[in-house]
Amino acid sequence: MKRTEIGVALLGFGNVGSGTYKALEENFALIEKKVGAKVVIKKILVRNLNAPRRVEAPAELFTTDFEEILRDPKIDIVAELLGGINPATGYIRAALTAGKHVVTANKAALAVHLPDLNKAAAFHKCMLRYEASVCGAIPVIGCISRALTANRITAVKGIVNGTTNYILTRMAAEGASYEDVLKDAQALGFAEADPTGDVEGYDAANKLSVLMATAFGIYRAPDSFERVGITGVTMEDLAAAEAEGKVIKLLACAEEKDGGIEAYVKPVAVEKDSFLGRCGSEFNAVQIDCNMAGPIFLQGKGAGPEPTGSAVLGDIIEIAQAIAAGTEHEQPFTALI
Ligand code: HSE
Q1: How much is the pTM?
Q2: Span 76-101, pLDDT tens digits
Q3: Which of 200, 203, 251, 282 to mutate to test the pocket of ligand 1 (most atoms within 8 A of CB)?
Q4: Domain 5-136+306-325 is in which class?
């Protein structure tokens, strides 16, 4: 029977949840046309029903009861936008077990659990998609797993954290203090709930782990490779780089070397006038080296409610299209692990 409506639950209504809601509201008619059915938010899981919201939504959508979402047969897709490993990982697993497809933006959960979550999705014949977990709006996961799938990928490198790029850009350009710029990054919705994850490079390491799974089909835990954040970068370091025509960027890099994959996250001085050197503010940039396509360069907003919401919604739409076509139980995985 032709579906006229596809139901979605959002877990979380912070920066990413509200950005996703807003993107769906704004482009509702366009999305209905693309899917051939209405994509409707049925429930929004929050911790506190009375918390202030950055985007308005009808009060009846909000619930504090995850079980209510699991039991609701009208909910086809669960979008996990809570962040953090727990309870998010348990919710993703429970949703898959209940036969619901899952979209997640949660790089911390995926960096630890992608192999077993992929297995759970396969077992329950559900789709698991996670474009928004890496580089915000940039379609790097889809690019690697679909458009570049004919290639052996030999390297993935770039700027994958918006908060640190925003901080380093403003410190270098304006001489602004680290503390002030970090506050602005938080107010703009770029930073994690605990910004230590951003500035100490944990967030970038999580994203690199997800990228490696997608690009190389290998699982490398984020604590298994070098990780250095930006808290040790001083104004003197920035000035010394500037004197050499360079800028300091927090780079995440994974490349084939000596029969293995070498990976790191660390601050590196790059030429100002280069692909990565020109990528400023909360923008991210990724270079993907391929054995057939050659190098591919992607750049866009790597953080922020609407850019990240755009990536979440892209995955929701892909699943909704599969549901509308009746092929949702036959879709390939994104990562080969
Ligand atoms: N805190 C993250 C960043 C959000 O700044 O990149 C997007 O993943």
Answers
A1: 0.97
A2: 999 999 999 999 999 999 999 999 99
A3: 203
A4: alpha beta
